[in-house]
Every structure is written in C-alpha cells, then in structure tokens.
Amino acid sequence: MEKQPNKLINEKSPYLLQHAWNPVDWHPWGEEAFRKARKTGRPVFLSSGYSTCHWCHVMEHESFEDAGIAALLNRHFVPVKLDREEHPDVDHLYMLFVQATTGRGGWPMSVWMTPDLEPFFGGSYFPATERWGVPSFRSVLEHLADLWEHDRPRLLASAGSIMDQLAGFARPEAAAGEVTDKHASACLAALERGFDIEWGGFGGEPKFPRPAALSFLFSHAAATGNRNALKMALLTLRKMAEGGIHDQLGIAGLGGGGFARYSTDRYWRVPHFEKMLYDNAQLAASYLEAYQASGEALFADTARDIFNYVLCDMTSPEGAFFSAEDADSLDTGGSGEKREGAFYLWTEREIRERLDADEAALFIAACGIRREGNAPADPHGEFSGKNILFRAESDDELARRFALSTETVARRLDSARKKLFESRKERPRPGLDDKILTAWNGLMISALAKGSLVLGDTKLLEAAERAARFIVDTLYDPASGRLLRRYRDGEAAIEGKASDYACLIQGLLDLYQASFEAGWLRAAIRLGEAQIERFFDQNAGAFYSTAADDTSVPLRMIEDNDSAEPSANSVSALNCLRLAAITGRDEFRTVAMRTIRHFSHSLDANPSALPLLLVARQIAITPPARIVFAGKRGDPALVRLIATAFRRSRPELTVIHADETLEALLPEAAAIGRAHQGGPAAYLCAGGGCQTAIRDPESLDAALGSPAIG
Questions:
Q1: In the chain, how many domains are there?
Q2: Which of 397, 488, 571, 575 has its CA 20 to 30 A from that of 383?
Q3: SUPFAM superfamilies, per this entry (predicted)?
C-alpha cells in the first residue's frame, strides 16, 4: 500500500514537514485538532520539538515511524505536532507543567491533555523500550489510554487542578519593591559560585553559553570596577573560542566557523553539534563586548568568524537569516545512517592524507588530534577513533615546540584549515532549518550593526540593512504596527510574540546607530508603541509573551528568565530606556522602570535569573549621556568620530544624528543640525545641555572619559 502523508504535509515548518509522512495522524496545533478532540472525546497528545533536535529525530525513528505505535496513537488520542520555535508561548506553558511534575524538561516534549487543553501527564523523550529508568512510549500510551477509558473523572479533576495552578503562575502581581544594587551583587555572587575558574562558564556539564550573563558581567565591571566580573567573562569567551564548541574551520569569505549549541563536558570540548542563529547572534555581541573591554585581537577575530559563518552558511537569497543547522548528518563511512557530528569529526588518518607532512604534524599538535580519538567524554559511543577540532596549543606554544616563527605557524595552520575545509565540503551537510524568525533575525541584525561600528566593517552594516529591509517589508504592517513571526517558502505567518517585537526593535535601534538612516528609527518607535499597546500589562507593569488578541495559547504568560534566548521583558526594558533617551518621551522610561520593578520578587528568589534586566537597571540609574553627530552620513571624518564613540562599550550612551528632517521626533538634534557649520562634529549632551562641537577623535575620546575598567 502506497504511503500517504498526514495533515502536516501542508505546513511550512521544517520540523512539522519532517513528520508529514509518519503513519501517525498528526495535526498541527490549532482549532481543527481541538474540535476533533472535543467531538471524539479523546485526549490530545502534544509532541513539541524543533527541526535540529537530536532526540526529536530519535523518537520519530523509534516510535512515530512505527506502524503499531502509530495505530495506538491514532486510535486513542488526537496527535498534535508543535514547532516550539514557531509557537514558543505554547511550548513554554506546557514545559512549565512538565518541569513542575517531573523535575526536568527537554525536547521532544510529550504532553497529554484533555480536549479543553488541560494537561494531565507529561515528559520529554520516551524510548521505544524501557531504559535508563524511563518507561517505553508504548507502555505510557497503553496506560494513559486505559486511565482515560476507566478513570476519566479523576484525570479530568487532576487536569483542572493543574490548569488552575498554571493560571496562578500566569497571573501577574504588582511589584512590591525596587531592584537595587543588592540584586546586582547577589547576581554576581551567584555567578561566582557557579563559575569554573579553570575553564570558564557557569555550572557543571552540560555547559551552555550564557550571553545574557556575560553582558551583565561586562556591565557590572564597567559600572563598579569589579575586575573579577571582567575576568570571568573574558576567560569564558576565550575558552569557548578555543574549544570544540567553536567550529575551528571557519574560512573568511567561504563559510564554516560559528558556535554549536552547548558543550557536553566542562572543557567546551565535545559539543552538541547543532548551530542556532540565536546563539551565534548573541555570542557575536558578547565577543564584541570582550574586544571593547580588552582590546584582544582574539575576541575581534572570533566575532568576525561568527559573522562569516552566518553570512556564508545561514543567509537566505533575500538577505534574511535561517534558523539553525542540525547536529546530525549522514555518516561519512557510507552506512547511510545519520550520526551526530559526522560532518565535523576527523580521524587522524584523514588529516594526514589531506595535508603535507609538515602541515599535518603542526595541525595535529594544534588541535589535539589522537589516533584513538580525542573526545574526553563519549556517552553514546559515537566518537571512537574520531577527533573534534579544538585549540590544544596556541601559535606561540607551537612555535616554541617546532622551532618555527609564529608567522610560519600561522601560515601553515591557515593552509591546513583551508585544505580541510575544502575536503569537508564534499561531505553530506547537516540539515538546514531554513525558516526565518523575526526575533532571531532581530538579534542578528543587532549584532551585525554593532559589529560594523566596533570592527569598522561596512559589509556587516550592508548585511544588517538587507536583512532588516526584508523583515520590515515582508513581516511588518507599518499602518497597524503589527509583526508576524515566521517566513518560509513564500509565506509570512503566525502572530508575532513579544520577543519578535523586542528583538527587532533592538536590531533597528542598533541599525539606526550604525547607519543614521531615519527610517529604522521611525520603525523602532512605531513597533515600541505597538508592543506596549498589545503586550504590556498596565496593572502589573510587565510584558506578556503573547498579545492580548492572540488566541493561539490557552494562557498568556510573563517570561521571567534570561535563558538561551533573552527574556522579552529584559530586552524591552533596555529598548524603552533607549527610546526614552532618543526621543525624550517619558512614557517609554516609565514602562522600562515599571518592567524592571515588576521582577524584584523574581530576583529575590533567583538573583541570576534575569542578568540582562540588571543591565537595564544599571543603565537606568547611570546619568544619561548622548552624542549628537553632525555632518554628512558616510563622510570618512564622521565615520572616524563615530568609531571613537564605540571603541569601548558604554551602554548608557545614546547616539543620534543631527537630521533636520527629524524635527517632529528629535527636535534637539534637528536644531543642532540647522545651527551646525563646518565639517563633521560631535556634540556631547548631558544634564540638559550640549557641549561645543568636538571635531577630532582624540578630543571626543577624552571628553567621554575612560571607563572604570578597559
């Protein structure tokens, strides 16, 4: 009998399309599935994941492709597939339930719920046969089907009680206190307690990058002079750059490079090999901050490497950015099976066969290559005889060992990398999730715009502008101020979430700073107004993740954690402070301050939960400063002045162009533009007034003053 697709065949999500030919009668999240559940009286089985999720692939192969399990699912449940990246608010709601009832969470997320979408049982990955103390998926299905048939009243009562508890979590309370220096000190102390003083990073393995925490450390160091905060951030970023989590085969103009999702060990050595746009966007910004704080070339080079990876490997024909690359790819040994990291792993023999003898000896020492393989941990037996590229020795160390000049070492290693990169291109690539998400593109636009200023690279600005133009033209309605979240295969869809507004506003504000193109500022202001209108709770003083008129989620939640992605509330507080500083509109500052205060209880309970919100609070209490630049955009003398302002990180600094056409938005800047005479100049404004024109970079640098640490 010829296989038939299920209802996912008409979807755009790569994750949903991966399951379109399963024998499971999958439905996408939506009213059609819910109507069927109510009509048939069956519970809903929700399976949530994303296209590059390794264990999602495993569970599909083991269970969802199995005809017997599919028949069981189809007979007793209404199966629903959710792309968590398309609907993060739905996923977040049910993940709270899974974490509360099991003590842990992860993807694929598996939740069983009533036809009214009230959950009664959940977990993450369930194996095909019982192992690791986890019951088999089949046994769970059989048990829950039996309970639904014979003990339904108890399940319904339990589900109703659980939903009441979730509604309680979702019900915001007005803040009772201020966020103070004590919260910042407690956040620093929490990070210090979890810090790995030898290898950097926070907590044990698996070890995740935490760009929001790094931003806090840079901000705290600059504000207080705390050298340990700076050392923690710099060591973490240095060790990550040297580790296997960083693809060491990035070649300028060709691709490769960038960072994997996380490390399975404390040494940043053995990554989970998927690459996410949001990680690379935030890490690029972190490496730029590190370069501003230290002046070390390593950090600038690593930021360039990330940008090179995204622009070569993750950019759509329209100029926007794809979402992710898979951890898995076809085994290079020809088994026909997909294996994690197959694209990135090397045997010692492969390296010797592809390089000259001198190059091979140097590269093997540089990257810790061993005949038996170099993975310090191999929990699933996938890396035997294989090597993960990392920097085991620096160029200086290699020069001493091989009695070579550092220039010769660098030249030979560069040649070796190019040869291995070209060889790797012949391998089957990991799968690409080519959907375009507004929030993640906003983060990347922001990083590129900052990179253009800090690194002096106009190509980065051009890339940021091209991506922003696509998002604004395709996923934004300027008349209503409404955003859509996802574009793929010619379709723009899904109501934008608070994170989409917040991250795009951040990107547009940074793009305005880098280009002084007034259109980006106008769009950021309009989006800020729309976000406050549609997401901000005026009673509680915080942003919901979902808009008031978005019915796609049973309960609206307020995010209170800067995790892998920054909380929309933290980013929005930062945005509103910037919008207030640029426009002089007090309502933006009021929203920012209320948002910061709302989370005082959350910070009391978990001081390191919202490090980016603490960055916003530090900006809010720092005396504001603005530079109004006058002169023709693109003038080399003006470019040099602007670059001076971004030589160091000064989050409290607002940069504006003296554009006479912005009279209605920025009257002070427009007035300076009308009065200004002569060549490009900077006007430093603080305390309600502006100083006289500064025309050379050295004088501007002196006027700005040296930060506490630099």
A1: 4
A2: 397
A3: Six-hairpin glycosidases (SSF48208), Thioredoxin-like (SSF52833)
Domain boundary among 122, 148, 170: 170
Please write the tens of the pLDDT for every residue from 448-506. Answer: 999 999 999 999 999 999 999 999 999 999 988 899 999 999 999 999 999 999 999 99
Listed in sequence order, the DSSP H helices in 260-322 are: 277-294, 297-313
My answer on whether 223 and 370 are in the same domain is no
Q: What is the pLDDT of residues 572-624, one digit of tens each?
A: 999 999 999 999 899 999 999 999 999 999 999 999 999 999 999 999 999 88
Q: 543 by DSSP, 3-state: which?
A: strand
Residue (of 187, 215, 213) closest to 290 by Cα position: 215
Q: Count of CB atoms within 10 A of residue 2's CB?
A: 3
Contacts of residue 161, Cβ cutoff 8 Å, sequence gap at least 6? none
Task: Give the Cα separation of 483 and 493 in Å (integer).
Answer: 9
Domain final residue pick, 622, 641, 671: 622
499 and 476, same domain (yes or no): yes
CB within 8 Å of 429: residues ≥ 6 apart: 325, 329, 343
Domain span holding position 78: 7-170
Calculate ∠ Cα 225-611-583, nearest 5°: 85
0.90 cut: is pTM over it?
A: yes
Residue 62 CB contacts under 8 Å (≥ 6 apart), including other chains: 127, 128, 137
